[in-house]
């Protein structure tokens, strides 16, 4: 008896599963990576565009600031600053002289000078918050100069008393001069 | 073999995969570098902007302060000092009025007029600029008691006129009567407004 070999398959049998599996997995992988890459590319474009726009705006703002600073500097250069400085310092000095209180000074000198010492003349010169006084006095005794220097040194409103001259007069009195720094309670100007 | 049958598809997939992988790594790396570099550039730009802004604000502050000083100077020159033609007679009248008010009427007055000058330390060695102001001095001698002299000094200090007591000299000959020599001064601006730049300074 002859054996019967039946082949019922339409096509020859082959195992295609590994191939399809590779194709599917590779396709999924390609699709996923393509999406990721697109997202990366899009984010890059978007983010950098924003940053670039910010940089451009910041650069433009900086240029504008520099231009405005330049305009102000030009305006500053147009001012005669040397003259303005001299004028304001001069005005400050004059305001200090104007606001200087002679009444207060005389009150304080009355407190310093002894009874037998007379004030002959006062000439102030104004410095930074301090007044340099040139005084001429007349004393009845020979110790007038020393006593006066001593009293100026003890008074907190006066500093650095220093004699400039002493002359014995015909009438037996003594004329003497001295320099002393005086610190008034208020010596100010308005302009700077 | 089935692999051979599908080789075109497999090759295409392999190429696509390789391309995507290459793109993925290179782009990711470049992306990071680019972003970092742009962030750095942005930070630099912001730094420059802040610097420029600070410079502009400093310049504006300087300018504003100079303008304020200029206005103050102008105010003193125009309102307090004014020109001689505007204020000289008023000053003289005030001095005389105060002398009468303190019962110390002098017999004579001496007037001086000189251009105001800056007492410069002259570090730069340059000639000090003109102040465009004149100083008028008035000297007079009076006789009276110490109280009268103090009253006159007080009145001069309280005067609305810009009068400066420059120096006082005292002497006494008899009893309580003092002879007082007073030197007062005042200032006037020139005819040109204080803030006006001289022609030589203009461009």
Verbal overview:
The complex is a heterodimer of chains A (192) and B (203). With 192 residues, chain A is of the alpha+beta class. Chain A folds into two domains: 15-78; 101-182, Alpha-Beta Plaits. Chain A has helices at residues 17-78, 81-99, 102-112, 144-154, and strands at residues 117-126, 131-139, 158-168, 174-182. In chain A, a hairpin with a 5-residue loop joins strand 3 and strand 4 (174-182). With 203 residues, chain B is an alpha+beta fold. Chain B has two domains: 1-81; 82-199, Ribosomal protein S6/Translation elongation factor EF1B (Alpha-Beta Plaits). Chain B has helices at 2-5, 7-81, 84-101, 146-158; strands spanning 109-115, 133-144, 163-174, 177-189. Chain B has a four-stranded antiparallel sheet. In chain B, strand 3 and strand 4 (177-189) form a beta hairpin. The radius of gyration of chain B is 41 Å and the shape is rod-shaped. Chain B starts with a helix and ends in a 14-residue tail after the last strand. Classes of the chains: A alpha+beta (192), B alpha+beta (203). The interface between A and B is large, with 71 and 76 residues.
How are the SSEs placed, and which strands pair?
The complex is a heterodimer of chains A (192) and B (203).
Chain A: H1 17-78, H2 81-99, H3 102-112, E1 117-126, E2 131-139, H4 144-154, E3 158-168, E4 174-182
Antiparallel strand pairs in A: 1-2, 2-4, 3-4
Chain B: H1 2-5, H2 7-81, H3 84-101, E1 109-115, E2 133-144, H4 146-158, E3 163-174, E4 177-189
């Amino acid at each position: 008896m002859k054996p019967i070999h039946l082949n019922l398959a339409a096509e020859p049998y082959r195992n295609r599963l590994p191939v399809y599996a590779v194709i599917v997995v590779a396709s999924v992988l390609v699709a996923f990576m393509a999406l990721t890459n697109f997202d990366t590319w899009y984010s890059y474009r978007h983010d950098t565009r924003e940053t670039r726009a910010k940089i451009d705006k910041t650069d433009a703002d900086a240029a504008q600031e520099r231009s405005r600073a330049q305009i102000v500097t030009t305006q500053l250069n147009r001012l005669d600053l040397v003259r303005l400085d001299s004028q304001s310092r001069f005005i400050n000095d004059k305001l200090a002289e104007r606001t200087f209180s002679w009444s207060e000074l005389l009150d304080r000198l009355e407190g310093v000078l002894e009874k037998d010492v007379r004030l002959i003349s006062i000439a102030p010169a104004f410095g930074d918050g301090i007044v340099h006084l040139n005084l001429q006095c007349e004393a009845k005794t020979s110790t007038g100069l020393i006593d006066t220097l001593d009293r100026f040194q003890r008074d907190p409103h006066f500093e650095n008393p220093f004699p400039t001259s002493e002359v014995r007069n015909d009438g037996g009195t003594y004329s003497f001069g001295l320099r002393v720094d005086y610190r008034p309670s208020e010596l100010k100007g308005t302009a700077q | 073999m089935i692999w051979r049958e599908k080789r075109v598809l497999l090759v295409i997939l392999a190429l696509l995969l390789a391309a995507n992988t290459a793109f993925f790594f290179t782009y990711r790396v470049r992306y990071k570098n680019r972003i970092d570099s742009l962030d750095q550039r942005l930070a630099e730009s912001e730094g420059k902007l802040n610097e420029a802004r600070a410079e502009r604000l400093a310049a504006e502050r300087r300018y504003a302060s100079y303008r304020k000083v200029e206005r103050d100077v102008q105010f003193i020159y125009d309102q307090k000092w004014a020109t001689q033609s505007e204020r000289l007679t008023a000053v003289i009248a005030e001095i005389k009025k105060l002398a009468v008010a303190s019962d110390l009427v002098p017999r004579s007055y001496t007037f001086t007029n000189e251009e105001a000058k800056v007492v410069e330390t002259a570090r730069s060695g340059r000639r000090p600029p003109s102040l465009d102001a004149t100083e008028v001095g008035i000297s007079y001698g009076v006789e009276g008691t110490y109280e009268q002299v103090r009253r006159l000094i007080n009145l001069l200090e309280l005067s609305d006129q810009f009068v400066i007591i420059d120096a006082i000299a005292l002497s006494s000959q008899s009893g309580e009567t003092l002879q007082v020599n007073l030197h007062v001064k005042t200032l006037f601006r020139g005819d040109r407004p204080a803030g006006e730049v001289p022609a030589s300074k203009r461009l």
